[in-house]
């Protein structure tokens, strides 16, 4: 009887140890490191939506910013980047940002002029001559004044990024003089100043979203458009346009925006780290944008069935002169509080 009791106790003990080992309760090893699981309870996620390809000045900078934020916050903040209008597009991204459906977007400043008329100053033709001038204006006190305009919209402006100078592309006929634009349906970003620019030379401005440009060019719903070499190359506009004229008549750049309520909800240590990441990305971004546009222009120059022309100095001067009424339009319609005057002190005439 005694043997039976001891045997039963031993069997129960062995069974318990066996189950414990099988379930990993005894001699359990620590869980393997899993980045996805790290600090899940404290991790902050930023969804960042933009409308261009990843291999563009904005796409690369968005990825660089995501990397730097993660690095500086030691993984506490994760930035998920959604390129190519895969999350929100030109038409709905600002509302989504205001509603807090997305934490960050990077629209062109031209697209923001619907809300912020003063930003039209950056769309004025032939205002800037060099990338350095653009850098000085957008990253200095003028940039800060422009970002302050966002306040009533509950949006935090983290800064401005650059893409480059815009040129013209066209189907059928090349644009050697501004007269060649007469009667053409030209796509613009939604900015009254950009529309005025094309009206002034007798073209028909057609404001449409970036994601529709390729198909509208393909269908000949529009016959020409203005953009940077990097956007023309990465979006394949050269497949549906045969001519490009290097006019360098305006700039294309970006505002980096965050939902204000989300920004305010972040601990001040994280706000500081994000600000540092933004500053570092911006310095890097301005250099990369210039290099990328040069590289993509070289790629465009090597293509068959795509001709590139430089507008002659004489025609450029005529084009610039013809566009002077756009400045009159701007003065008459925008209460700019001397922002243009301040920019003109920085840029060469
Ligand atoms: C972009 O670079 O974000 C798009 C520019 C455009 O709409 O032409």
Structural summary, described in words:
- By secondary structure, this protein is of the alpha/beta class.
- The protein has a single domain, classed as Bacterial extracellular solute-binding protein, family 7 (D-Maltodextrin-Binding Protein, domain 2), CATH 3.40.190.
- It contains 13 helices and nine strands.
- Strands 1, 2, 3, 4, 5, 6, 7, 8 and 9 form a nine-stranded mixed beta sheet that branches.
- α2 runs antiparallel to α10.
- The longest helix has about 35 residues, at about 270-300.
- The radius of gyration is 27 Å and the shape is globular.
- The termini are far apart.
- The model is unreliable at about 10-35 (pLDDT under 50).
- The protein binds succinic acid.
- Succinic acid (SIN) binds near residues 52 and 227.
Helix content: 40-55%
Molecules bound to protein: succinic acid
Q: Strand share of the residues? A: 15-25%
Shape: globular
Low-confidence stretches: 12-34
Mean pLDDT: 91
Terminal Cα span: 110 Å
CATH topology: D-Maltodextrin-Binding Protein, domain 2
Strand segment count? 9
> Structural class, please?
alpha/beta
Q: For this structure, what is the CATH homologous superfamily? A: Bacterial extracellular solute-binding protein, family 7
Largest sheet: 9 strands, mixed
The CATH architecture comes to 3-Layer(aba) Sandwich
- Tally of contiguous helical segments: 13
CATH class bucket: Alpha Beta
Gyration radius over CA? 27 Å
Q: Spell the H/E element sequence.
A: HEHEHEHHEEHEHEHEHHEHHH
Give the count of structural domains. Answer: 1
